[in-house]
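User:
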Amino acid sequence: MQFKNIIAQEHIKAQLIKTVQENRVSHAQLFLGPEGCGNLAMALAYAQYINCENKTEADSCRICSSCIKSEKFIHPDIHFTFPFINADKKEKCADWLPEWRIFMTNSIYGNYNDWIQQIEAENKQGNINAKECTDILHRLSFKTFESPYKILILWLPEFLEKEGNRLLKIVEEPPENTVFLFVAHDADKIINTILSRLQLVKFPRLNDYAIALQIEKQFNLTSQQSKQIAAMSDGSYRDAMNLLDFTDPENESENTIILRSWMEHIYRRNVKELFTWNDEFAKWGRENQKNFFYYCIHFYREIILLQAGAGTL
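Assistant: Predicted structure:
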């Protein structure tokens, strides 16, 4: 991942590049921002730039051995930790790396729900367990294999819970040339003992112009279509991807159809149909149910804003 492939966030790119050029890379950083802002992509680009053998003043070279391995997510000195479930004797992140590489290739702006759906674990709650924390300590105890820095990208430290205390000492006093990049969306869910040891890099939501420009170019949309999607995305490129169906009035998203059906049954007082609807909804995975409710909240928020006179939305 190169910086130039990340949507907007130019001031953060410049800030991170400067830390490398001036040899003052902080050993423990928190890339904090809302879903879809690109903080995971930025962590990947930053890790690649740090270890690039022929970096320029603006980006990594993409052609050296380090960059080639970084872009395939197989660099021996760039490690990954992320929420997962215990299944089929997969008890740590190393066991899930094939699926994780696919996720990063296809859904770099995705969220936790996208990841859980990919590994078909909608009915289970992922976490970062004690065994993974012990494995982190083990992996980072070795010297670097081929690059100047060992880098751990820890996605969603919100799922560490109390097990994160096992990492306190190594985060506070890391081995030489070791960098921790924590990528999070909600600082309130990160245990305070870890949070207090991290240098904050705060990511804003993407602006509508940047999102509209990207999807218009990437998906060959009209200017009006791209602006409409950008306005509805609430600064999230991930949500913009999910809203692409709205560009065709005859092609509604699945959530829209389900919500309409639910509301029609309520309005018409179709009790029998409501029980049927509820029975089907109960079969969904927990993460799918949560995702649907988030959609409903967003939908009704937009209605309230429109009723309040926000006609430009």
